[in-house]
């Protein structure tokens, strides 16, 4: 091998039952724009650029269980989202369609569940 080729992370793809519904949630939550859309796939990205989020409809999608439990569907990843006011951001996320996870492992982080069942964390910088 002559050298390392260039790699650039363009997007993180979240599987779900309905790509358009989940993209709408993250569009509301983050204030991002839809950059591309197909019947079973949507890309949203910050207007300032950077890594985007894509959503892909999967017919056999099963939402993950958090915290993980034995033989249940495990989460494969979660998003960490920086906020400037934890209580205000949590209220906004819930109003946008998220739910608060029953278990909150840290006082300075809020674990929420998106409408497709993916956990995500809100945290202060």
From TrEMBL:
Q: Which InterPro entries match?
A: Glyas_Bleomycin-R_OHBP_Dase, Glyoxalase_6, VOC_core
What is this protein identified as?
Glyoxalase
Q: What PANTHER family does the record tag this protein with?
A: CONSERVED PROTEIN (PTHR35908:SF1), HYPOTHETICAL FUSION PROTEIN (PTHR35908)
Tell me which PROSITE patterns the record gives.
VOC
Q: Which regions form coiled coils?
A: none
Residue span, VOC domain: 8-125
Domain of life per record = Bacteria
CDD domains in UniProt: VOC
């Amino acid at each position: 091998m002559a050298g390392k080729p260039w790699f650039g992370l363009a997007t993180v793809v979240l599987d779900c039952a309905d790509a358009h519904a989940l993209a709408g949630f993250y569009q509301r939550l983050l204030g991002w724009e839809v950059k591309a859309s197909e019947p079973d796939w949507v890309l949203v990205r910050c207007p300032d650029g950077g890594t985007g989020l894509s959503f892909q409809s999967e017919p056999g999608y099963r939402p993950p269980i958090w915290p993980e439990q034995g033989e249940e569907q495990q989460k494969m990843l979660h998003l960490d989202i920086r906020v400037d006011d934890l209580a205000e951001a949590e209220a906004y996320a819930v109003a946008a369609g998220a739910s608060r996870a029953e278990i909150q492992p840290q006082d300075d982080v809020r674990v929420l569940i998106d409408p497709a069942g993916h956990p995500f964390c809100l945290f202060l910088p």
